Amino acid sequence: MDFARGEGDEIIAETIGRFAADELRPHLREFESARTVRESVRQRFAALGFEALDVAEEAGGAGLGLLPRARTNRLLAEADAGAALALDRLAPAIYVIEAFGGVDALKSLQLNLGQSDLRFALVMDPGAGDVVAARVAGEVAWIPAAGADVLVGLGPQGAWVLKEGFAFEPVGGAALHAAGASGVKFAGTPILAWHDPVRAARALARIRVYYASLIWGVLSDAAGCSRSYALDRVAFGKPIAHHQALAFLIVDMYVAVERLGLLIEDAAMAIDAGEGRAVGAAAAAFVDAIEASRFVGPNGVQILGGHGFMRDFPVEKAMRDCRALGLLAGGCDAAREQAGAALAATISERIAA
User: Fold this and answer.
1) Which residues pair with 169 in a beta bridge?
2) CA dist 23 → 17, 87, 349 (Å)
3) How confident is the model at residue 246 (pLDDT cuts 50, 70, 90)?
4) Distance of alpha carbon 154 from alpha carbon 152, whole angstroms
5) What is the rounded distance in angstroms from the CA atom of residue 139 to the CA atom of residue 290?
6) pLDDT: which is higher, 1 or 101
7) What is the DSSP letter of 115?
């Protein structure tokens, strides 16, 4: 296992980090209130050329793999996870299309990377779940998107793509505001559908790493913000970070974030290498992301006390955003079950050997 970063990785990290610090962080509350990101910011991000880091070169992407994407997501989410989702016009929906249809499917949807404004959105197992006779009907209560030109659905047994016959309706949301929030209704329009549980599992693995990396970024920022506050806030003659109870808690939060990062990068590397353990590794990383968010998020708020619930500090937003991100990609229980099954299979293989 080698997590070393090459020169190219450092350039991407430096560029994305500067963009997040200059274009996203200062406008955190503005984008949240507007429930969207400025068009000028979208254009600047697109101009960087990083929107298709992990899309195959044959389809016009960079072909660098999921690991750089996960690291990029972390940097963007440290500024605003909702804005990170809003800036990604391909969304994790692209993983589904590539997993089932390959490069030909990507080309047939006319992505025209760098030349098109076509936006994609992902739906995990529609609420109605009615995919009958190559049609989808029903509705989805919420997805973190304001709209899309192409809608992609993924379930345990397969996937589908829809270019028309759906409508986005704005809904209220408690988190990821900059991404937008919508319910989606389907009109029973014919769809392009695929049935393959194995490919569905592979696509889901990439999606889980994508969302887990956003949680990683949010928690990294929350832990750093609460640590800085604890170093500045003085009680009983010294910073509260120097009191044992809080000192231990801050360390535990730091460990949780670093552990999560290792699991995410390991899963991304396994996926990029096509390893058989990739599906289980991605599920485990997603579970740990949710568990870490339940620990770091609330404790970040608690360290700030009453200030933690005020919009003057980003920790209350971090707690909200992580809760919402944890509901995506099928949720925690499904990921835990899949990770457990993968672990059990690995143990059985070792025993048999």
Assistant:
1) 183
2) 10, 12, 50
3) very high
4) 7
5) 26
6) 101
7) T
From the number of C-beta atoms within 10 Å of its C-beta (0-12, 13-18, 19+), residue 148 rates as buried
Three-state secondary structure of 23-82:
HHHHHHHHHHHHCCCCHHHHHHHHHHCCCCCCCCHHHCCCCCCHHHHHHHHHHHHHHHHH
pLDDT for 162 equals 87
- Residue 52 tokens read as 């298709």
Structure tokens belonging to residue 98: 């590539």
Residue 109 has pLDDT above 70, yes or no: no
pTM: 0.92
Token pair recorded at residue 49: 């050329």
**Looking at the predicted structure, is the pLDDT value of residue 3 above 90?**
no
Contact 335, 286 (CB under 8 A): yes
In whole angstroms, give the CA distance from residue 110 to residue 112: 5
Alpha-carbon Rg for the chain in angstroms: 20
Lowest mean pLDDT among 33-37, 101-105, 233-237, 250-254: 101-105
Choose among 286, 246, 252, 248: nearest CA to 266.
286
Please give the structure tokens belonging to residue 175: 């988190």
Residue type, 69: R
Q: Are 122 and 200 in contact (CB under 8 A)?
A: no
Q: Side chain identity at 158, as an amino acid letter? A: G
